[in-house]
Amino acid sequence: MFRVHYVRLIAAMCMALLAQPVFAQEWAEYQNMQDHFAINAPGQPKTEAIKWKSEYDSMFPGNVYRWQDGQNKYSVTVIDYSDSEALYLANHHSEDFSAAAYWQIDILGSMAYAATQYRMKPGVKVTFDAFHYINLVTGHQLQLTNPDGTRTFVALYLHENRLYILDATVTRNSPPPIIFQQSFEFLDAEGKSIRYRTYYFDRLPEQKVGRRGATGVAPAGGGGAAAGGGGPQGQRGGGAGQAQPPQ
């Protein structure tokens, strides 16, 4: 009798294991040279070209890369803000809003604006909301619990006037998507991972029309080392949420 129960127990355990997704066999590094990033994700993504409405009503081109692994959904959205000046001026804003500061703020405030879109979703509970960085590129991280019990993990970065939005929405009982978030890398024109020697802050594109800067002075721009600059190898994400995210 004991032998029969033991065999049944082993059989039940095998069936349970077979029912679980085999993450290690499905996940691999995905590289994208068009939008200059790499990430570990479950296979090849579905890609969609979009238009992103900014804080000051400019419509920026972007791409969304989507993956699905069982009930868990992952995406990287990349918005190209490099033509902010031309797009802003084409909107023919009133004279009160014609200063260069506004198209520049559209870029510099893009992470904060995107984060606000998540915070304002109906019924969500924000459980983490703080500064973050990855490979010394500064950014922001959010964690939310959705009304259906799923959890959304968001990471935002602004690099070379591209806004990157990492979104992982997983089931209530799934582990935090640390691999998806922490494997993210920025790529240079040759497809090599970019490393910085100090913290990177986005540099504004050169102004082409009208007086320079919000006060008649050329914008200094932020920034760490030049793209592709050397730095400590293996430097990964940091900030308050560096360790395993809270449940």
pLDDT below 50 for ≥5 consecutive residues: which ranges?
1-25, 215-236, 238-247
* Mean pLDDT, all residues: 81
Radius of gyration from the CA trace?
21 Å
Order of helices and strands: HHEEEEEHHHEEEEHEE
- State the helical fraction: 10-25%
Structural class: alpha+beta
List keywords for this structure.
247 residues; alpha+beta
Can you characterise this structure?
The two termini are 42 Å apart. The chain is α+β, with helices and mostly antiparallel strands. It has one domain. The model is unreliable at 1-25, 215-236 and 238-247 (pLDDT under 50). The chain is 21% helix and 33% strand. Helix 3 crosses helix 4 (100-108). It has an eight-stranded antiparallel beta sheet. The chain has a three-stranded antiparallel beta sheet with strand order 1-2-10. The protein is built from six helices and eleven strands. The longest helix is centred in the first third of the chain and has 18 residues, at 2-19.
Please outline the helices and strands.
Blueprint lengths: L1 H18 L3 H4 E6 L4 E6 L3 E8 L5 E11 L2 E9 L3 H7 L9 H9 L1 H10 L5 E10 L2 E9 L5 E9 L2 E9 L7 H5 L2 E2 L51 E2 L8
Antiparallel strand pairs: 1-2, 2-10, 3-4, 4-5, 5-9, 6-7, 6-11, 7-8, 8-9
Helix pairs in contact: 3-4
